[in-house]
Every structure is written in structure tokens, then in C-alpha cells.
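Case study B.
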Amino acid sequence: MALVPLIDYDDATPEVRAIYDDIRATRRVDWINNFWKALANDPATLERVWGSVKSVMAPGAIDALTKEMLYVAFSVTNNCEYCIHSHTAAAGAKGMTRQMFGELMAVVALANETNRLANGYRIDVDERFRDPVPR
Amino acid sequence: MALVPLIDYDDATPEVRAIYDDIRATRRVDWINNFWKALANDPATLERVWGSVKSVMAPGAIDALTKEMLYVAFSVTNNCEYCIHSHTAAAGAKGMTRQMFGELMAVVALANETNRLANGYRIDVDERFRDPVPR
Amino acid sequence: MALVPLIDYDDATPEVRAIYDDIRATRRVDWINNFWKALANDPATLERVWGSVKSVMAPGAIDALTKEMLYVAFSVTNNCEYCIHSHTAAAGAKGMTRQMFGELMAVVALANETNRLANGYRIDVDERFRDPVPR
Amino acid sequence: MALVPLIDYDDATPEVRAIYDDIRATRRVDWINNFWKALANDPATLERVWGSVKSVMAPGAIDALTKEMLYVAFSVTNNCEYCIHSHTAAAGAKGMTRQMFGELMAVVALANETNRLANGYRIDVDERFRDPVPR
Amino acid sequence: MALVPLIDYDDATPEVRAIYDDIRATRRVDWINNFWKALANDPATLERVWGSVKSVMAPGAIDALTKEMLYVAFSVTNNCEYCIHSHTAAAGAKGMTRQMFGELMAVVALANETNRLANGYRIDVDERFRDPVPR
Amino acid sequence: MALVPLIDYDDATPEVRAIYDDIRATRRVDWINNFWKALANDPATLERVWGSVKSVMAPGAIDALTKEMLYVAFSVTNNCEYCIHSHTAAAGAKGMTRQMFGELMAVVALANETNRLANGYRIDVDERFRDPVPR
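Model:
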């Protein structure tokens, strides 16, 4: 059970309702999921986090589906049950297929494996990898 | 400094050389990076992990660039310096631009933020998110 | 369900009872929570961990409420459901308000975000930050 | 070495300079630390993250020193070297003493210990802890 | 509830059945646990991961019981409920006693404590520890 | 560089020297490693943590070498460079061979992989695994 009450649209202040309206309009859905209803207990955080999500998750140099799959991937590593469910659903709505989900899990798991091998052996960065971000 | 010696091609056993050859042929590069040279101290692990990487990272339902960016993302969360450098270089070689790198960091960071909000508030999964993987 | 039976006061050995008595006296409560009842299966661990908690969590240069909120913060990042509940309750008993809980969650989440940005960009420590602990 | 160039004030765009000015004014310092100089490569992220930090870290129901020590605590658990240095320096500037730093480390370490005991034994939440956030 | 259907032996393809048969023969059990039934939705991952587990977990320079206890230990730190249960059962079947389980939890918890102390104080590696892997 | 000065034997208080003496006697070594020299800045933590390490790491139902290898394993997952070096050296002194180190890394890495698969697919615990700790 959530540690705070979930605030429904009808019980929300005008300030919170305006954010709920923006969430629904931006996402083209007719409901508000529990994450935002919980954050609404702290309207400043609701406004700030929604602003970040809206801005960061919008399509840019990386498309929206890839961003959503990245979110699923982190939710698995951080073992956030809520996030796994909500972002898998969102990724599905944006075009992730069942097969893509399977491959995503495989990459997530393998990266967690090889990260430990590199850390455990304390492998030095190759000279050629020193300045890896493209210009 | 790596905890084990890095095994160069010329010092490798025929078994290890065959894997090095496959790495170079598969990736179309003319060198072997330190990660594999360290794993070569344990040839069974070298063979098994390379087999996994070759299979999982090949393009499939998810394209190779997206998979590589996922690897960068995990390397950041697990704070694996070697992995951040090597996979950022690999993603760059596959087409990631500087702007995409910036957006990738933004998504990684934000996901780590919102994961904690969902975990901290112990938010219940919405009924609509219960069965999120597409059929 | 806990992996080991929870040992109630009436079923405990005199050695365990003495620790239970100390927990109740130190905390001024009339019951024992499940964490200690589980550890009581391994009396040496019960004694050692209670000794550490009693010593570390006592007010010192940092007051007891701040220490308790730090505990909540870690429990969120490590996603320990039991710990989130028990330490949030303890922090509340020591004076944490609902608004403080909201701000605490916001700091926890934001720190997890900016930690990844610093790690991902591999930012060098500024010279002025080299020796940061006050004398 | 940082993965991106650090952008000094003199080389920054007017948009970035305005944020740098706000950072210096808000913090009453006459310099910009490397974190912001790295984020300046992606001005949208610089603006968004600075906005979050400015808002979340301002004194509120929790005082600014406590918030800064929370930041140190997370940086230790996430093993972010840059963050440990920068936030320890910031906490020192806000009044954290050497003794408080020592106690902070002790709480961080102990919380990471007991979190694992609770997770490992899969201890059920006590009924009395079910609804722990104060009204 | 698992995010994908669990595939029973009778509903499995011949390819998946062959892996199920190998799991049962290798482990000398007459059933298949849910982990493999979930992975069977992605037969390539099932085959690859089972191959890795079979190879890595076989007795070698480290005996099978110690390897299984290592698995329990990680499952606690990563807070993977399924893994804690399944690997604790497996370790028990290989000879772990109740007392060993208690000591295992104590080591896991303590290691998570002292790791944070070393990371938090940013302690330099002693010269004598520079090259620690035995020849 | 460590965030606090390392306190050598000759500069230590009698209280700290007594603990240093106990560390050397218990471990049959003639020197003190940096970890303890850093903790000595906070004598209460030095005493408490050394007491815990001495008690938990002593041979019991689990032998001392296995306990030390568990420590190495966690240090890799938590990416604690100091701890990887110091505990690998300690495990080597207790009998870990180079081949055992290689197998240890393989188990650590694989456990981090399969933990994510179980968490990602949200696999339900099998009924047979419900009560896994041996009586």
C-alpha cells in the first residue's frame, strides 16, 4: 500500500488539476496513473518531476520508444516493480513488441554481468577508448 | 592496474587466438581491447562471455545501436569506468551523435530519480499496468 | 513470509530476552519489532547488530532525527520495504512531519539523478574539492 | 578525464552564462565547479538540473545542512567520487564538523548493513509500521 | 505475477523440451522451476543462460556449495526475492545448514557496511595490496 | 587521496594502539592497512567495526576462506576498489588460487545477470521454494 494517499482528480487542488490535465493532454490518455497521484501530496515535486519527464522523454535525437525502453531497463536493475510495469506498458504502447521485450531483458542482464567482470578485474581503459564521445 | 596480466595475441594459446580472431572478424576491427585480454586468463569464461555478447548484441528486433546505448546506460548506473569508455566508443562507431549521448545521460539520470520516488512512496501498480508485455 | 521463524519474547532464551529488554528500555517501547525477532535465530548477530544500532543511532554530533531520516533515505535507494516502513515510523516518532518526508523523498531522488550525471560524464574533481572534510 | 569538454564562463553562450550567474548568486561563490561546466554541453539539461537542485536543496521543512549531508550519504553508496568530494565540501561550508562527518559515515555504513539483513531474511512489515508517514 | 506466461513441459516446443530435460538430468530433479519456464518465452535466452549456469555452477576449483552460497549472497544485495528463495533452497540441498545460512547473512551484511566505509573515506589501496591475485 | 589523514601506530592514542595490536595479533601480520588507519579518526567506529569483522570473519559453520571470497564478491558488485584489492589479497593468503579467483569472478558476474532476469520478468516464487532455509 502506498505510504501516502493517492489524490484523485476530483479531490485535487486547481494547481494539481492543471498538471493532471497537462499529463493527459501530453500523453493523450484519459486517466492519471498512481505515480502522479502519489506525488500530488507534494505539489512542488509533482510539478518539477513532471516537467523533467515531459522534457526528457520527448522525442529528440533519440526517439521516444528507445527512451522508454531505457526506462524499463533501469527499472529492472533498480528492481522498481511499479516502474517495470508502468514503463513496459508505455513502451508497448509506443511499439515495443514481445520479442523486443525479450531482447531488452537479455541486454540488461548481460550488461550487468560484463560490468562486474570489468570492475572485478579492474581493467584499464584502452588508450583508444580515452575520448569516446563523438564530436 | 588490471588484477591479471593482459594476454596479447602473440602470447595467446591457439584456443584463445581463435576467439580473438572471431572478435576481430565479427566487429571488423584489427585489434583486441583489454577486456578480452583480461578474460583470456580464464579461457572458459572468455569463450562463454564472448559467445553471449556476440549473440545478444547482434541486431535483432532491437537494432545494434540501441543495444549499445543500453550498455552505456548500465555502465553509468553501475559506475563501471572501463565499460562507460568502451561502450560509448562502440556506440559512437555505430552512429550515436554527441547530442544523442547528452540525451542518453539525461534519461539515465532521470530514470534513477523517478525509480526512487516510486520505491520510496511504495506506489501500487495500477490495474491497467498489471499485464504490460505486448502479446 | 520471513525465511526464519520470528522468536517471541516468551519463547526466547534468557540471553535473547536480555537483549529484547535492552531494546525496549533504550527505545522506550513495550514491544519488539520483527527485525529483531528474526535476528534472534542467530543470537550472536542479534547482539552485535543491536549493539551497533544502539551506539551509532544515539544522538551525537548529529541528532537522532537526522540519523533516522538518513536511514529512511538508504532504505529507499536499497529498496528495502521492511526498512522503509520501520524507519519512516521511527522518524515520525522523533518528529519528522509529512512535509519533511516529502522533501526527504525529493532529495533522495535528485541525488540519485545527479550522481549518475557525474559518473556518466566522468567529471574530474575540482582542485578546491580535493580535501573537503573540515578540520 | 571528463568525457566532454568543460565549458568555462568566457566560452559559454549567453544562455549558459545566465545559468552560471544564477548558480554563483544563489550559492554566493565566485566560481563554477566542473559539474555544471560539463552539463553545459547540453544546455537544456544544465537548465533543468540546476532548476531542480536550486529548488530541492533550498531550506524548507528540512534545513540545508541536513539536505547536503543526505547528498554526501548517497554519493558514498553510489560510489560517485566527484559527488563525495563536492558535497562533503558543501556540507562543510554549511556547518558540518569533522565529527559529524565521522558519524555520517557510520550511519551510512550501518544502514547498508541492516538493509541487507532485512532483505535477506525477507522480514514481514509489522502491522504497526503499515502506515508510517505522519499525518 | 510474472510478466510473461510460464511455459510448462507439455506446452513447450521440442527445442525447449530438450533444455528442460537437460536441466532435470543435470540437477537430478523431476520438475522445472518458474525461472526457466519464464525464460522459455525467449528460447535463445533460455539456451544461452542455462548453458552459462550449467558451466559456471559446476564444481571446479570452487565447490558447488560455495558457489551456491555466493548466489544467495548476491540475491540478497540485489534484493531479488525469487533468487533468494530459489538459491537458498538449492544451497540447502547441497549441504548448507541453518547455522551456515545465519553466518552467510552476517557476512553479506557486514561486507555491505565496510564497503561503504572504504568508499566513503576514499581510502587509497595499500602498496602491498597492489597485485593481489595469486600466481 | 583519503578524505582523512591516515593515523600511524606511532601517532595513535593508547586506545587506538590497543586495537591496532589486536588486529595484528588476530591476523598474525606485522602491519596495519590503510582501512583501519582511516577509521582511527573516529575511534568508536574503529572499535565497533573491528569488533564486527573479528567476530563475523572468524571460522564458524562457514570456513574463513569462503567468507573472504564472499567479501571479494561484494566488493566487485559495489565497485569498491580498496576492498577488491585488500580482500583479494586476504583470500590469497588463506588459500585462494588464481583459478579460484577466475571462477569467483564468473559466479559474481553470472549472478548479477540472472538476478536481473528474475527481477525483470517478475517471476513468482515456486511453491517448493517458499520455506527454503534448512531446519
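The two ends of chain E are 48 Å apart (CA to CA). The remaining cases will be described in the next quarterly update.
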